[in-house]
Every structure is written in C-alpha cells, then in structure tokens.
Amino acid sequence: PKPPAPSRSSPAPRPTRSPQAPRAAAAMPALGTLSAGGAAAGVAGLLRLRRGPALASPLPAAARAGAVHDGAQLVWGRQLRPALVLPAGLLPLQASKRLTLRPPAASAEPAGEAKSPGLLEKYPAITTGFFFFMWYFLNVIFNILNKKIYNYFPYPYFVSVIHLLVGVVYCLLSWAVGLPKRAPINATLLKLLFPVALCHALGHVTSNVSFATVAVSFAHTIKALEPFFNAAATQFVLGQTVPLSLWLSLAPVVLGVSMASLTELSFSWKGFINAMISNISFTYRSIYSKKAMTDMDSTNVYAYISIIALVVCIPPALIIEGPQLMQYGLNDAIAKVGMTKFVSDLFLVGLFYHLYNQIATNTLERVAPLTHAVGNVLKRVFVIGFSIIIFGNKITTQTGIGTCIAIAGVALYSYIKAKIEEEKRVSF
C-alpha cells in the first residue's frame, strides 16, 4: 500500500541544520514584518530577535558595538531608520518594497552623551555685553573721526552723502552674498518708506551741520531734547495722551539744555537751530515708521531707507556745496592731510556710521526696551565725555551742570516710558 500523501498544511521535510537554525529562521519573518507588517509586529519581531542568542554576524565586534542615536533600536549593530517601524500604509511605495539597513555614521556621538552648550549659549550676557560695547565703541569712534574731518574739511552736506553712500555699498555687498537675503520691494512699500527716508535724510544732514559748527558735546546736549519733541508729537500730532509723569520728567531736560546753552563757549545759532531741526526730523521719522509697519526685517528696511535717503541728499549737496568743492574744497583738504588720509577718513567714518546704527538695532532686538533706553542714555554720556577729553573742549561750570541735569532727565524719561510700555504689554 502507498503511504498517504502529505497535506499542504503539513511542513515539508527539511534537511538537518545547526542548532542555531531555528532561531535564525524565526528571525527572518521578524525582519520581514518591518516592511510589510504593522509597527506592533515589527517591534515584537525585534524583541524576539534581541532575546535570542547572538547570531553569527559577518560584521566585526567594533561594528556590532556601533553608536546609537537617540536610543534607536539595533539589528546586528546597525541602526534602524525611524521609517522602518511605521505602518506599511504610511510608507512610500518604493520604501515599502525594499528597505536597507544602514550603519550609523562614524562620527556619531556615543549613546546618551548630550552635546554640551557653548560658552555663549551658557552665558548669553557675554554676547549682550559685547553688543553694547561695540555699539558704544563704534559710536564714539564715529563722532570723534567725524569731528576731525570737519576740522579740515567743513562740508557737512558732502560728508553726509559719503556716510550714506558707504552704507549703501555695504548693504549691496551684503545682499550679493545673501547676508541677509534681499527682501522684495514694490511701489506700495516705496510709498510707505519714502516719508521715513525723507525725515531720516533731513535729520542726518542737519545733525552733521550742527556737528560741524559747534562742539560735539554741545550738539549731543541739544539732541538730548529729542524726547521732548517725541512727547509733543505724540500728544498734539497723533492725538495720544501722554501721562503727566512723562511731562514732568522732561522738565529737567529742558532746564539742563537751557543752562548749557547760555554759557556754551562754542555756541552758534546755526549749530543750535540745525540740532533742533534734527530732533524734529527724527521725531517725525518715528511717527512715519509706526505707520509704515511691514513684514520686512529691520536690516532690509534700514537698507532701503539708506538708499532712498542717499538719493534725497545728493541734490542739495551738489547745489549748496558743489561749486565750492570743485573750486577749492577738495584741493584744500588734500593739501592739508594728503589724498590717502582724506579718502580713508571718509570711508571709515561712513563705515562706522552704518555699523553703529546696525549694531544699535541688533542690540534693541536682544534686550528689553528699558535696558535699551538706559543704554542709549549712557551712550550719550560716553560720547560727550570722550569728545571733551579728546578735543580738549573747555566748558564752564554751568555748562557742565546743565549737561548733567539734561542727561539725568533723559534717563528718568526713558525709565518711566519703558515702564509704562511694559505695563501696557503685560495688561494686553
């Protein structure tokens, strides 16, 4: 009689294998479930594989002890990609057909070893302090070099154009290398930015006329009145109520500037009036800036404002100072200091002007408004103090006391204003 035919469900006879063969055969379906089965089946297969005795591996011992990223699972010392434990329906079509296991990168860090923070990340105050130092340093150097240029080249309209021109070239080169990437602009944005740039140009030129006419310390003392014009414009132009405490804090500012002006040895109405026009111009620049809020970052906004302001400043410079420059202005300056020093001074003063304005903006983004306001007051103190020391400006006792009172009033005003804005932010 013939033996009964084996059923389809009964296993086919297999040749004799080594004792580790059942474990290896059981491991292969477990690996297969990683690409065709669900996440639960894949994890279960991995667990069964990990519990069994070690399989013979062609990899050396160093490879089997490879690094693990973020606690990832290992199969024979190789790291699984996160996609391998996803359900099959969520995997891409090509990935579900064939998945390869890749060894970890040779430069990977050992498991559980976290990357230690750097010194600047651990102590952010060091970075903030560096920004403040560079802000003060660049501002002091700019004011000193600017005044030295006016001592042998008294043409503030032309120098103002050079300031903006060097800054524009700097912005164009930054855009060319993509630091930062240039933001697109259209006619609507130009209409919004033009009033801001116009006020910026007028304030910049009149400030330089004042710096060229009177002492740097006195010009900055007059410019300490800028908060007074800001408060007046907020109250009477924008129609917003200014708290009484702010008005009272401005009283010592007005008193101090008046005391300093009465006994200032370098006083001239031309320098005083231009410094006051500069205060008004920068006040309206702030007003128009609030109306021209855009999604553009501050670096790109300042770049476009500088370009527009340069175009605005060129015609009056050519009309007012052009004929004198062509006749004797440029030749006299070159005869006094030489061509190399003259050109290098103009380039450096323009570079310092642009950099200190950019650093001031970056510092404002890193600190609270109150800290920035106090820093701005201290910056003015540094500029006045260093200008007196370097240029040897003689000041009377009344001028010194008036300057101190004005600076103290600006500090009080900045503190109260910053506290009011902070309370509004918290309540909002």
From TrEMBL:
Keyword field contains Methyltransferase: no
Please note every region of biased composition (Pro residues).
1-16
Q: Where are the bilayer-spanning segments?
A: 125-145, 157-180, 192-219, 301-319, 339-356, 377-393, 399-416
Region called Disordered, residue ranges: 1-23
Stored SUPFAM superfamilies? Multidrug resistance efflux transporter EmrE (SSF103481)
Q: Which residues form the Sugar phosphate transporter domain?
A: 128-414
Q: Which InterPro entries match?
A: EmrE-like, Sugar_P_trans_dom, Tpt_PEP_transl, TPT_transporter
Q: Name one GO molecular function term.
A: carboxylic acid transmembrane transporter activity
Q: Which domain of life is it from?
A: Eukaryota
Q: How does it sit in the membrane?
A: Multi-pass membrane protein
Keyword terms of this UniProt record: Chloroplast, Membrane, Plastid, Transit peptide, Transmembrane, Transmembrane helix, Transport
Q: Name one GO cellular component term.
A: chloroplast membrane
Q: What is its main location?
A: plastid
Q: What is this protein called?
A: Sugar phosphate transporter domain-containing protein
Higher taxonomy: Eukaryota, Viridiplantae, Streptophyta, Embryophyta, Tracheophyta
